Amino acid sequence: MKIALMMENSQAGKNAMVAGELNTVAGGLGHQVFNVGMTDENDHHLTYIHLGIMASILLNSKAADFVVTGCGTGQGAMMASNLHPGVVCGYCLEPSDAFLFNQINNGNAIALAFAKGFGWAGELNVRYIFEKAFTGKRGEGYPIERAEPQQKNASILNQVKSAVAKDVVESLKSIDQELVKTAVGSKQFQECFFENCQDAEIEAYVRSLLV
Predict the structure, then answer these.
(1) Greatest CA span in the chain, whole angstroms?
(2) Mean pLDDT for all residues in the chain
């Protein structure tokens, strides 16, 4: 699985630690990790709004299979991600959240709070969240006797989102294009996207922004 980590300006100072924990857990399980957001406070400036755009492009183009995002509270990053077609982002404050989202909702992104409640042993909480997010089979349900209705409801939710959401490229073109240009403007994002993109229309659109 290809996992994209993206962090914004307010919490970029924690990127090295978060990336290290994600690489230890997910890399140890054989997943590829791409650090596509801000890597420090002086990097290409991003807000949680840009992170939602990035998540949409990476997930819908299949350049990434899963996104780890977040901000100070995690709420903005979650909302910005869930605005977009093809993105199902859960809110994870602790490991049990990651486990339950993995098993019940079976989405493709998680948003973490990198400031709120992030005190002593914060890196351990991040590590354990990643362990629960990426270990074991997904979508099996919890408790197991509720597996069938949970799987059905997760599928229905995806169908409803597909029905009400715009086409991916159409939705991106409806946004202020300066926001999208900034979202795709960093070297690390472009490397991940162009090396792994499997959708010619999305690729052509992104290239048109970089001319």
Answers:
(1) 54
(2) 96
